[in-house]
Amino acid sequence: MSEVKDISTVKACPKQFVLAINDTLNVLSGKWKLPIIASLLYGKSRFKDIQENIEKITPRMLSKELKDLEMNGVVKRTVYDSTPILIEYSLTKSGEAILKVLDAMVDWGIDHRKNTLNPK
């Protein structure tokens, strides 16, 4: 992972950083994708389990978002040949790597809230 060491010496943001941020936002955008990913962080889940875990998501929206996450290589859909048919969703390696992004978002959010709501 590339890091900018001293931001005061940087003339312009490298184009690859802007593209990487756009790619991340395109994959994670929307109200439901992060909650879906979070519900899969601890292992495989069935559609109904994911739906029950996420308050107020409709089956249609969950289906759409799961398909989108699958298309983007974040979620894997596995169909088992059984009676009745069992379908499970899990995170791919790329999806599991999002945990680092989520951790960074939590850290930033805690600091931001502390500094904006309780400035010293």
TrEMBL record:
Gene3D superfamilies: Winged helix-like DNA-binding domain superfamily/Winged helix DNA-binding domain. Residues 13-117 form the HTH hxlR-type domain. InterPro entries: HTH_HxlR, WH-like_DNA-bd_sf, WH_DNA-bd_sf. The keyword Transcription applies. Keywords: DNA-binding, Transcription, Transcription regulation. SUPFAM superfamilies: Winged helix' DNA-binding domain (SSF46785). Coiled coil: none annotated. This is Helix-turn-helix transcriptional regulator.
